[in-house]
Specification:
Length: 524
């Protein structure tokens, strides 16, 4: 009787236990049908004067005991250099529309307030020169957002002249006197930020009249940016998918279609956070599979949002001259208990790594239109790459995703087809596997594959049309739990590890761990 019971129990356990056998998935990459270039600018970063994003995250001051170069922390610079940050958007965000650049240049800095973010004092010790020095140290380009909400076209025009004029104007001489005789390069110019909300609550028509004025008068005088490498002007774009947002895109794009010689724009921004519902209430750590699957479902809405606004843009700009620049995106969760809610402090888990990969893949699939994106935000705020606390620094799972994706910067998109079925949890159903492929400038093939399923491994067999593979190597990012994080005490919980990928009979074979992001390179 006892042995019968044991046998019965074992059978029940076998039926109810999660099925851990790997799912076999066939995937094919067609190298003979190259798509658009995956613009390196989709890997852009955003840093705002908000909480400890700039102060403590980047700037500690030259007198700090924390090792620094001219006040900028060396550990952070070293980490950011390794992910080849293409551009950094600054100084905001909402902060940008209350920022007055003159208060943060020269030996005397004004102390102001930061009413958007905790009402704290703003020392203005990190200004134009410190930002440019930081960019120089990490090897990134400047994406400067000018103040349209509470500034004037004259203030913004003078800032650009101060930064970019080579001729000996009074402003250029002032820049030289402040330590930088050579003109700075400003690659991207944001004409306001969320002008429909914190940037001034403007109607689309009102914004368009402002945009034209700023586009006309806020000039870049850097001689190196007159023909090639011209500064790209990015207009404020939508922040959602309802009629309010489609109207906004229609109005800006219609104006662009009718633009005259005297003004121009090159991009339309879009903001879309993965939040679930406002105010943000999902925990950034200490959650389970339900919250994991729900957040990933929300994040995949990015694809529909891009398609919707791209379709409007196509009507007015069929040649896709205007880039869609998703210059604020990422997970936005409840503030960490005990933190200042105005500082937007959250943890960064394996779920964020997967969220980042899914969004980067969406941007890559829309590479013909999405030619820029800036994750919010780079350090200590929202979905950060880096978390610091005084002299301590830890790299987040999201940081490692950006590092793993470096080979995709400026690579050529290649179409991938696969059908891996669905991962379901409760009422959430998600594609089990997501993947993109690209060819870099040296002809090397790169494949990214995300296994969203937190319970089941996947065995991939990839056929590669137009490629004769010789060998393959890869890295994978996973961790024990969906909410695993890196901490100052345990910084290596979520770090990439080598994964073995085999080339057999012209096909590529590899096994993906559950809840993992994997990058494979194929030599041919
Ligand atoms: O990234 C935080 C804030 O989110 C930005 O300041 C604003 O543009 C957006 O609403």
């Amino acid at each position: 009787m006892r042995s019968l019971l044991v046998g019965f129990t074992l059978i029940v356990m076998a039926i109810t236990a999660p099925i851990m056998a790997a799912q076999k998935v066939e995937l094919s990459i067609d190298a003979s049908k190259p798509g658009a270039k995956i613009d390196r600018n989709i890997f852009g970063q955003f840093t705002e004067h908000l909480g400890h994003g700039v102060y403590e995250g980047i700037w500690v001051g030259p007198d700090s005991k924390i090792p620094n170069t001219r006040g900028i922390r060396n550990d952070v610079v070293g980490a950011l250099k390794a992910i080849k940050v293409p551009n950094v958007r600054w100084p905001g965000g909402c902060f940008a529309d209350e920022y007055h650049w003159r208060k943060s240049i020269g030996p005397q800095r004004s102390v102001t307030l930061n009413p958007n973010w905790g009402g704290v004092t703003e020392a203005n010790t990190f200004g134009t020169h410190e930002f440019m020095d930081f960019l120089d140290q990490i090897g990134a380009e400047a994406y400067v957002s000018v103040n349209v909400g509470s500034g004037t076209p004259q203030e913004a025009a003078e800032w650009l002249e101060y930064m970019t004029a080579a001729a000996p104007t009074t402003l250029a001489k002032e820049r030289a006197a402040n330590g930088h005789p050579a003109p700075y390069k400003v690659a991207l110019l944001g004409i306001g930020n969320e002008s429909w909300d914190c940037g001034g609550n403007m109607t689309p028509d009102y914004y368009v009249s402002q945009m034209k004025i700023y586009s006309r008068f806020v000039r870049n005088f850097n001689p190196a940016q007159q023909d090639k490498q011209q500064m790209l002007k990015i207009a404020v774009g939508p922040g959602g998918d309802g009629p309010r947002w489609t109207d906004w895109t229609e109005t800006v794009m219609k104006a662009y279609q009718q633009h005259t010689w005297s003004w121009d724009i090159n991009g339309l921004s879009m903001h879309n956070y993965t939040v679930g519902h406002w105010p943000p209430s999902y925990a950034s750590v200490g959650f389970g599979e339900t919250e994991y699957s729900q957040i990933l479902k929300f994040t995949l809405e990015m694809d529909g949002l891009i398609s919707k606004h791209s379709a409007i843009m196509d009507k007015y700009d069929p040649d896709k001259k205007i880039a869609l620049v998703v210059d604020e995106w990422g997970g936005w969760y409840a503030p960490l208990p005990g933190s200042n809610p105005g500082f937007l402090v959250q943890q960064n888990s394996l779920r964020d790594a997967i969220l980042a990969a899914l969004n980067l893949n969406i941007f890559a699939r829309h590479a013909d239109r999405v030619r820029g994106a800036n994750i919010a935000q780079m350090i200590n705020v929202l979905q950060a790459m880096i978390i610091t606390d005084k002299e301590k620094m830890v790299l987040t799972p999201t940081y490692y995703v950006f590092k793993m994706y470096v080979p995709f910067q400026d690579a050529t998109f290649l179409p991938v087809t696969l059908d891996a079925g669905w991962y379901t949890h409760g009422d959430v159903a998600l594609p089990r596997v997501d993947a993109i492929a690209a060819k870099d400038a040296n002809g090397k093939l790169w494949l990214e594959i995300t296994n969203l399923d937190p319970n089941q491994p996947v065995e991939i067999e990839a056929s590669l049309a137009g490629i004769a593979p010789k060998s393959a190597a890869g890295e994978t990012l996973t961790a024990p739990k969906v909410d695993s994080v890196n901490t100052f005490d345990a910084p290596n919980t979520v770090v990439p590890k080598a994964v073995s990928a085999k080339v057999q009979g012209g096909k590529l074979a590899l096994k993906l761990e559950p809840k993992s992001v994997t990058i494979v390179s194929v030599e041919q």
